[in-house]
Amino acid sequence: MKKLKYERPLIKKMNAGLMNKFGTRTEFQPVKAIDGVPVTQLISEYGSPLFVLSERQMRKNYRSAARSFKTRYPKVQFAWSYKTNYLNAVCQIFHQEGSWAEVVSGFEYRKALGNGVAGEHIIFNGPDKHRDELILAIENDSLIHIDHFDELYNLIELCDELNKKPRVAIRINMDTGVYPLWDRFGFNYENGQAWNALSKIVGSGRMRLTGLHCHIGTFMLSTNAYAVAAGKLCELAYRCKTLLSTPIQYLDLGGGFPSTNTLKGAYLPGVDTVPSVDDFAEAITTTILNFGFKQDELPLLILESGRVLIDDAGYLLGSVIANKRLSDGRRATVMNFGVNILFTSFWYEHKISPAQDFDQYTEDMVLYGPLCMNIDVVRESINLPLLNPGDHVVVHKVGAYNMTQWMQFISMRPSVVLIDEQQNIHEIRQAEKLEYMEQLEQMPAHLQQYKLA
Amino acid sequence: MLNSYAILFFSQNRVLAVLLLLVSFMNPSAGLTGLLCTCAAIALVRLMGYHRDSIQTGLYSFNSLLLGIGFGTFYSFNSAFWLWLFAACLLTITLTVVLTAWLGKYGLPVLSLPFISAFWLVLVASNGYPGMGLMQKESYLLVELNTGPQTTAIINFIKEIDQVCFGRYPDLFFRAVSSIFFQNSVIAGILMSIGLFIHSRIGFSLLVLGFVVACVFNAITGTYPEGISHYHLGANFMMVSFAMGGFFLIPSGRSYLWAIVSVPVTFMLVNALSRFLGVHNLPIFSLPFCLLTIALLYFFILRINPGKLQLTPIQHYSPEVNLYQFLNGRERLKDLQYLRLNLPFIGAWTVSQGYEGGITHKNEWGQALDFVIKDEDGNTYKSTGTRPEHFYCFNKPVLACADGVIEDVVDHIEDNEIGQVNTEKNWGNTVVIRHAGGLFSKVSHLKQHSVKVRVGEQIKQGDLLGLCGNSGRSHEPHLHFQAQLTPYIGSKTLAYPFAYFVSGTEWKQQLHSFETPVEGMEISPVDMNAQLKQAFSWQPGYAAKLTADNGRTETVEVFTDAYNQLYLYSKESGATLYFVNNGTCFYFTAFYGDESSLLYQFYLAAYKVVFSADSGITATDIYPLQTKKFQPGIWLHDVIAAFYQFIRRTYSSSSSYQHQQLTIHAKGYTQILNRKKETMSADINIAEGALRSFNINLNGTKTAVTWQTEHLF
């Protein structure tokens, strides 16, 4: 007989409730494999912690989102939001599927060029575009989304110098009935700033006004907000055509569609409450189609979705370092990953599954990361089976923002692997090493020697 | 003027015309009077202000030409000669104009009837009244050459080579050809044959065919024991064969068969008419040919279902051009045959049941299409698929396939649960649209209360009709589409293609034009590029200046003709280029004129452009075979073209976008049997919604042309 697994003793408060002949059940299922590849194999080959991305899920998400829009509206274009995850392998998957690139810095812009995206298929967003980056974007005929008047004036000067007419759009912020109102980016719609900017662009004669852009927020839970935003953009586009004689070629509704993660403080889990891409598509396309554009003047609809396309394609594998009991009697488990590499644990109550079999007993516990910092809490309260040091867990839906916002703090960042559609494993980013970290450091001569007393 | 000569053989070929003019002067007096009468006829009809194009083709003057030649051949010069020539010429012109109009009403040609009648009148009159002063002479050139006073070295030389003999039948053939000009000369026949061969291989082969069949027929039946004589007889057989086999009918195996069949009939006519007219001592000339051709032509015109034996729709005055344009047009010009139907939805849908699908598309309702949306795993639904909302196509927009008026709407039938069907109201919620030309289209199984249109409403192509649903005999949400000829819900179906759609995935797309999708095909509408469309949207009055790097410039302008067809006209070269812009693509239908012009190069380069900026979409097309240049390969092809075509000239183009500039990359190929060779490559550049320039590499010769649009206002 196989030796039974040790389980630490558990003391649980009696809960007076209805009797249940099946005993207490948990919703947990162990997740022993990702896309058919065993977790133990991944960890033994690439170490723990480890980020795992599923190519199959990414493509599936993209096609599903594209289908939602493209069967409702005749001209749709997706642009991969680089900041969501700019590992080159990830970007290439979305470019292969037909996505353009949406970048918010010169660094991302050059990354997109390096990935082989044609200049005219790069959307250059963001409040901080340097002069040399703008020149690069103009030379490459990229779509420049202007964020503020100072940038607009700079651009006019640049166009004069270069004698080129770049294609530009402005970013517009507006009241869509949701809180918080994002008014720090772009030009405001309600107070006329946006119209002022549009008039200036057309009036300057130096640029081609081709589009209107908005990005009303992130992790938006209301489809109506998008309908309002689309309506306002359509209204502006119509005014551009009639008053400025400049037909608008595209409306960029930005991103912000939520993944099915559960936000902190949410009463119900995300899977049950978050609207689907279909719902957003319905709201947006119906608004534009009903606005009254002529059929062959319908603007191209651009979407800069990132999170919704990749979040559930990413997993973080980790292991238990230790179990503890806190002063108030709560159980605490220390994991080998913390907020340094799982940045999104500041926002989400991530779903975490054990990666091996367990029995029916579960316990409420705090999940801590490995950092020597008080803020390093992965989950403040989670009900999990009893885990022993060395056991593995799988954190779900971590594909968005973690691999770009992770911190090299105290420990180094782990490797990232991609499981392709044929279940082959590819390491798409190696684990960081000390030499890599010190590569850019320089030591002044007077500090090279020391002698400890 | 030259056309008056060429049209005798249904041609507008200059080489043939010059040769004929030359041959007519082999009998100098006849040549002179022929030329005079032609000029007089042209001058008169011009002065009187008849239709210019008809004058141009020589339609009003070739009978006068024949009369002049006849007069010069039969009568000697004297003062009365000129008087009566004038009178007869006037009569011929009058008869030509009157008969042309009269027969024209029935779509029939006048042929040489005016000449025959006018000349008979002259003959009858002069035979009865010697006082008219017309002196008849021997009609054969050779006779005159021997006896005439003006024997010169040249005429002697002609006489010399006229003795050349090619054998009995070839000689007879050439003499028969020359007899059309009232001559009896091998050399004249040879010259005319060369001209005819250059003009048309099909036509020449038909002349030979007519001649051979007549000889064979005569040999079998022994109608004329001494063989067929060259004079009036041979020519009639040959001309009937030519006219029926290659000119008035599109050359084909069937038309050749008719050419053969008409020979015995011609025999009968020749004999019978000779007997009739013999009473009054009148020659029959080409009367049998005229009568039989007109009769047969009318016989063919009156058919209701023409089948495969087609009359020439647009006369190009060349059997080859007629044939190639016809074949090419049948393959390409679907715009003229069908109303342009677009797909009734947005995005990529899959045909779940095609024509004669066997499930519900059966019998009289067989020509219908069912559409669903599938994901990459081939499922039509997400989640569990137990509710209509789970299905991808449910609630998706359904569009009008073409402009029309709403004929009927049903909107109240409940959507079924998945797996249930409503056999009582089997079509479910339905919209029927009445389109132009008596065509109706119907979409069914729409969502309850989703229909946005009302009966009697005018709608445009692409307008929203309603939403896809699950009503009627539908066990899972899908869209049913059919075309029909009657306005009822439940009418039987009509097979009808969609004008343009794209099949395949985003990586490997294929453009289909005027096809019906088949079961399992994933199809989507063509993604249109407004800039490209604008660049080719040319209204009458659009003008542009073309400047080539070799210094040549041309000014082109868009005009419309009487049939509302748009064409580009090059002012410098006179070239004319007909085009069609149907909103989805731009293509040329015909080019006339100078093949060295820049417009011709543009014709080759922009033969067909689809307004899609998607570089994955390639437009393909087929050029008609060109016959004007000397290419022995094609001439060989011409001879058998009516039966089998082994040369194809194909075209393909696709577009790409870079730096605010759209470029159309075009390639031309010549395919002989299975060998394919690139003969043309071109780039057409478009910026800011206007054509800017094009480069073309034609068989290694490179030309770069800038295209400047002049101010339109």
Automatic annotation (TrEMBL), chain A:
Record's InterPro entries? Ala_racemase/Decarboxylase_C, De-COase2_CS, De-COase2_N, PLP-binding_barrel
Which Gene3D superfamilies does the annotation name? Alanine racemase (3.20.20.10), Lyase, Ornithine Decarboxylase, Chain A, domain 1 (2.40.37.10)
Q: Which cofactor does it need?
A: pyridoxal 5'-phosphate
Q: Which UniProt keywords apply?
A: Pyridoxal phosphate
Q: Does the UniProt entry include the keyword Thylakoid?
A: no
The UniProt record lists the Orn/DAP/Arg decarboxylase 2 N-terminal domain at: 63-309
One Pfam family assigned to this protein is Orn_Arg_deC_N
Q: What GO terms are given for molecular function?
A: diaminopimelate decarboxylase activity
Q: Which GO biological process categories is it annotated with?
A: lysine biosynthetic process via diaminopimelate
- What name appears for this protein in its UniProt entry? Diaminopimelate decarboxylase
